[in-house]
Amino acid sequence: MQPIMTPRDCPLRRKGCGGCQYAEIPYPQQLARKQAHARKLLAEWGPVEPVLGMEDPCRYRCKVTASFAEDGRRGLVCGLYAKGSRRVLPADGCPLQDELAEQAVHAVLQAARECRYTVYDPMRRTGLVRHVQIRRGLYTGQLMVTLVTGPDILPGSRRFAARVRELCPDVTTLVQNLNPRPTSMVLGDKCRTLFGPGFIEDTLCGLRFRISPASFYQVNPRQTQRLYELAIREAGLTGRETVLDAYCGTGTIGLAAAGRAAQVLGVELNAAAVRDAQANARHNHIQNARFVCADAGEYMNRLAEEHAAPDVVFMDPPRSGSTPEFLAALGKLAPSRVVYISCDPSTQARDIALLVREGYRMVRATPVDMFPYTEHLESVALLVRTEKR
Known about the structure:
Layout: H1 11-14, H2 27-42, E1 63-71, E2 75-81, E3 88-90, H3 99-114, E4 129-136, E5 143-149, H4 157-167, E6 173-178, E7 190-195, E8 200-204, E9 207-211, H5 221-235, E10 242-246, H6 252-258, E11 263-268, H7 271-283, E12 289-293, H8 296-305, E13 312-315, H9 324-333, E14 337-342, H10 345-357, E15 360-368, E16 378-385
Helix pairs in contact: 3-4, 8-9
């Protein structure tokens, strides 16, 4: 296989992949387009800083998900869905995917073929394999393979695991995930470790984080480091502040900020993520951070009633943005600074408009290009309180 240098030359694009919306656009022009997009959405509220791009915008995806299908000529295949269809394009030379992760996909496919595995049909409940998810710790080099199956039993699991490791010796752990339901969600609720510890670790902002199959962890670690460093810098921490990490997930932002704060409170509705955050705090010997499982808006209302407002709030909501209830609770809590990390500047702009009504002013926003060659853009906005309550 010849190395693919940019998406412009990618054979998958010619076959209908559709993953790289900006494949034909030189990278400097992509950044200019994203900068203009961020300014159009956010400049009404304050200055928009230059977008933070990547020095090398290829091979940045350290999480790869591929789906299994049957091909009349080749039998079992594994790869990406073509745009707007369920047709699977073999994972072969994607210029955005980590090369080692891609090698692991090939190893899984070869081992599955040798074990005569068939594709699972969730409607008929026949067959076996559905997806494979690869996660690589960029800075540790650890590699996790998660094979998603319909049935509970994986015939020849030892032979399969041994063959995957033989074909890709860099695999650190191999996990079977069970998902028999007719759903578009890749992972199910139950996992079984076939080899290794069942998780990998990676380093971020000087800390070590455990990544399990269902853990949220950004797919572009290099830009994630810059994103979090920017967010913590914008918070203006001096070591005396109480920090609330809303939508904290596995605690990455809050724990990265803990060394510069008096204390960190993390709130997250997903109980499994809270357990991961607590484990990450112990693993990194961080004693000034605690995490609670609760709705962030309800938790902030409770803090306001207890007159226990934090100095700084980090908020990192999903792509759909925050909710009016959360933003109203934030206004009631009235921290002096809010650092809003967004994966969609359009919903961020909508939410900033509501925060302005709650008595905040946007100091600045900084776009961060987490996904080169795609239309997606992240943004970090600093807001300060202008009205005392």
